[in-house]
Amino acid sequence: MTQPIDIPVSKIEILKSELPKNCWTQDIDIIAPHLTEWRDKYFGKTPLMLTPRCTQDVSDAVKLCAEHRISIMPQGGNTGLVGGNTPMGEVLITLKHMTRIREINTTANSLIVEAGAVLQNVLDAADAENRKFPMTLSSQGSCTVGGVLSTNAGGNHVLKYGTTKELVFGVEAVLPNGDIFNGLTNLRKDNTGYDLNRLFLGAEGTLGIITAASLKLFPKPKYVQRALIGLDSVEAAISLLEDFRAGGRLAMFEVMPAIGYHAVIDGFDSIRDPFDTSYAWYLLCDWEVESEAEGMTLAENILGKAFEAKKVLDAVIAQNETQAADILSIREHMSAGQKFLGGSVKHDITVPIDKIPEFFRLADAKMQEVVPGCRPVGFGHFGDGNIHYNIAQPEGADKKEFLANWDALSQPIFDICDALGGSISAEHGIGTMKFDDLAQRASPTKYALLKAIKRAIDPERIMNPRVMV
Amino acid sequence: MTQPIDIPVSKIEILKSELPKNCWTQDIDIIAPHLTEWRDKYFGKTPLMLTPRCTQDVSDAVKLCAEHRISIMPQGGNTGLVGGNTPMGEVLITLKHMTRIREINTTANSLIVEAGAVLQNVLDAADAENRKFPMTLSSQGSCTVGGVLSTNAGGNHVLKYGTTKELVFGVEAVLPNGDIFNGLTNLRKDNTGYDLNRLFLGAEGTLGIITAASLKLFPKPKYVQRALIGLDSVEAAISLLEDFRAGGRLAMFEVMPAIGYHAVIDGFDSIRDPFDTSYAWYLLCDWEVESEAEGMTLAENILGKAFEAKKVLDAVIAQNETQAADILSIREHMSAGQKFLGGSVKHDITVPIDKIPEFFRLADAKMQEVVPGCRPVGFGHFGDGNIHYNIAQPEGADKKEFLANWDALSQPIFDICDALGGSISAEHGIGTMKFDDLAQRASPTKYALLKAIKRAIDPERIMNPRVMV
Q1: Rounded CA separation B7/B2 (Å)
Q2: Is B221's Cβ below 8 Å from some Cβ in A?
Q3: Does B199 sit within 8 Å of A199, measured CB to CB?
Q4: Contacts of B202 in chain A (CB under 8 A)
Q5: pLDDT of residue B413
Q6: d(Cα B228, Cα B314) in Å, to the nearest integer?
Q7: For residue A266, is pLDDT > 70?
Q8: How sure is the predictor about A400, in pLDDT bands with cuts at 50, 70 and 90?
Q9: If pLDDT is split at 50, 70 and 90, which confidence band does B39 have?
Q10: Does B162 touch chain A (CB under 8 A)?
Q11: Is the keyword Flavoprotein assigned to this protein (chains A, B) (predicted)?
């Protein structure tokens, strides 16, 4: 693990004296919310928080930091999950004052927005133009565009639209030397050199600071047909994928195990179970269609076929928006619902889709070896091979004692991922949390390439030096 | 322009003595077809052609070249259009002996194939599994996967599926030091570091040699509805885009001007005009649907609305596969048909979609200033903002004399692209042809980044040193 950063007071004084007064703060009350994160897993410190108002402000600040070799950590909505957004001595730079939507182009289907804009505002702006920006995350009301892009966030719509990376034409970014890279295009084709824009996406702020982005908009589907399905196995879920996605309408394929499902139903008064019986697994699907009638026909056809093939035990086809929202609510509370099960060791992994059943066989067995009685809750975006494989403590166990097993539980999971050709980080990223894991588990060739790129663009390691690589 | 390469004979002798006999040739008859390209625009030379049989062969050869600082040019199907595939003294390395499809996974919808495989074979293999690999190019019968990926080829399906870059899970590539990078995943989510795979896509062989790739397959649409539409202006074409793409079914949106259209109709006996009248512009559309009935209903609805809005003058909805093939044939012969107009100066540019009409106004006028009487033939993928803006010689002019104006005609086009926020290379790439243009027209910040990445990964400039950057 990389060490905390210690910046001499004299350097901080230079920043304070050279930068405009509205571009920095040392006010503890203002800074405090930026130093911890919502799960209270990381607590940080910073000698100074930069508060730029525009791209030029960011450039000026970074130039000065580069000149004096001052480490910087950029922060968006502070909703990250891997410690990549909690400073440990770095100068913190928050983009929260840069929130403007600069341009919407409904012919090119593009939207240019500053990095500090909250995702929900982008979703609303697209919607107002009868367009869809296909990114839904539980944190969409507080996460920012810059953070979403820097972490290559996933979410529920990856299946149809891809991860964040696929949803971006290009970015404006301030490089570690303070220069401004302008990739704010809306061109769907541009073969003039390496894909520089792409480098900044998912780079977790280690190659520069994304200050704005040109996002891809899509035609808004006229109707979304939702269904919730009861299954007897995870194999059954995977076996449905091919028929469900035929026609390219499938936009969500989320799977939940009984233990997680019932924790939500039992724990939250506002949420009810649309089924009378309990099933081992639950599958939530969305199809994006052009009319309510088309949605109903499609769902009935697809599910009818699945019933006949005995792959499905029960199903609820949402009849209206309220029912659809109620069903989605169960899935959206899966993370929160796990608190009712006590302490939880969380993983965000991918395996090849056809290896998901094998993953569960191997991982479930291994977890029992490490902590007998622990309760795996593996749910999430199975259509993308992405499992949030969380391990709840054994019933009645001591939470703190259980959480002390974090690494002992995680390393075998990562081993299984590696063996199955999976990834130890599907959508949350590396941050500080998996810094050592990446170093140890990436192939030497891959790791050397990562380091070569970091060195090429940030030779002084000014940008987020404790993060990723 | 970069200079030809001169490799001392002693170094070539080292390669010959150290590498297996079946991994190189100096046979002139075997090498000759690799030294020129189909338009006879570039003629090259090479002291040695490497003919590896497997990835390890490539690695061994590149390691040796790195050790002795021998420049290498990789070549696929030799269908490139920007001089990036014609050696001028480099050791040539052809991937044509590496053609194996290593794996097809119909659950993950992925296909792993070696770089030398001809694109058509991949299309067929996907089709045999009831899958679609959405890449259609006029050269698909001879271009190879490695070349397609290295140039980030476009084609007719970009509108719905994106350029090549979007169709790739990852690559296996031999780096300039001979190390093998293995990115052959089928994971739709993997947030473990910078997007290394993406760096090799569109890199034109300057960062390493792609030896294999994991490609994304898609559900095969059950029916493709095609229509050909007569229009009075390019503005009309652009105004149709929104309604035509609603519902996400639109998979082709190709525009042709009367001059190019009639050159094809008049020039090729086998191709006939489905219309009785001539129109100023023609639009060819595909919608991917689930049944013939759905296709007909959709086309009739969309076109009916467009007729009512007086945006469309005439339309033919393909009634069967033969009609559909006949219509596509016109578009497919657009490049070839221009030979009937004499000499042609070709451009492959993009502008933001809403700027296409403005581009034509500016460019058409400017061309008349440079060569009075010249005949612009701007056609192509307008749904992506991509125009193949070719300038045919004035009627009766001397071909050679006209072609001497290549640069004088091109530079103003590039100026207009730059001014409109476009790109001087949409899908063909930079190669040697636009090496100087990129250097002069890219922003200093962008160009510095390109060079930094090249230097980081290929510090000795061994890989395709005369190409791109």
Answers
A1: 15
A2: yes
A3: yes
A4: 191, 193-195
A5: 97
A6: 8
A7: yes
A8: very high
A9: low
A10: yes
A11: yes
The ipTM assigned to this model is 0.95
Contacts of A421 in chain B (CB under 8 A): 185-187
- Residue A203 CB contacts under 8 Å (≥ 6 apart), including other chains: A150, A468, B194
Out of A245, A427, A448, the one facing B191 most closely (by C-beta) is A427
B94: closest CA of chain A, how far (Å): 22
Please check whether residue B67 touches A, CB under 8 A: no
| CB < 8 Å to B222, chain A | 247
Q: Which residues, including other chains, have CB under 8 Å from residue A297's CB and lie 6 or more apart?
A: none
Distance of CA B137 to the CA centre of its chain: 7
pLDDT tens-digit series, residues A141-167? 999 999 999 999 988 889 999 999 999
Check CB contact under 8 Å for A152 and B426.
no
Instruction: Note whether B46 and B1 are within 8 A (CB).
Output: no
**Residue B68 tokens, joined:** 């002795």
Q: Which residues of B133-168 are buried (b: 16+ CB within 10 A; e: fewer)?
A: bbbbbbbbebbbbbbbbbbbbbbbbbbbbbbbbbbb
Radius of gyration of chain A (CA): 23
Query: B378-399: per-residue pLDDT in tens?
Result: 999 999 999 999 999 999 999 9
Set of chain A residues whose Cβ sits within 8 Å of the Cβ of B173: none
d(CA B360, CA B350): 12
pLDDT band of residue A39 (cuts 50, 70, 90) is: low
Helices (H), B399-443: 399-403, 406-419, 435-441
- Return d(Cα A229, Cα A303) in angstroms, integer: 9
Cβ–Cβ of A445/B182 closer than 8 Å? yes
Phi, psi (degrees; rounded to nearest 5) at A136 = -125, 125
Report which DSSP code applies to A408. Answer: H
Taking CB atoms and an 8 Å cut-off, how many pairs form between chains A and B? 250
Tell whether B439 is within 8 A of chain A (Cβ).
no
Residue A107: burial class (beta carbons within 10 Å; 0-12, 13-18, 19+): middle
Pairing of strands B49-50, B91-94: parallel
Asked if A105 lies within 8 A of B438 by C-beta distance, the reply is no
Task: Report how far residue B253's alpha carbon sits from residue B286's, in angstroms, rounded to the nearest whole number.
Answer: 7
Q: Which amino acid would we find at residue B394? A: P
CA distance B335 to B379: 9
- By mean pLDDT, which of B34-48, B79-93, B114-128 is the weakest? B34-48
pLDDT given at position A427 = 87
CB contact (8 A) between residue B385 and residue A201: no
* pLDDT at residue number B2: 72
Contact between chains at B221 and A179 (C-beta distance less than 8 A) = no
Q: Where in A35-78 does DSSP place strands (E)?
A: 49-50, 72-75
Mutation site, A164, A189, A197, interface B, largest B CB count within 10 A: A189
Whether B138 has a pLDDT exceeding 90, the answer reads no
Strands B91-94 and B72-75: parallel
Nearest residue of A to residue B182, measured between CA atoms: A446
User: Distance between CA B64 and CA B307 in Å, rounded?
Assistant: 65
Sorted by where each starts, the structural domains of chain B and their CATH numbers stand as: 101-219 (3.30.465.10), 223-336 (3.30.70.2190), 342-427 (3.30.70.2740)
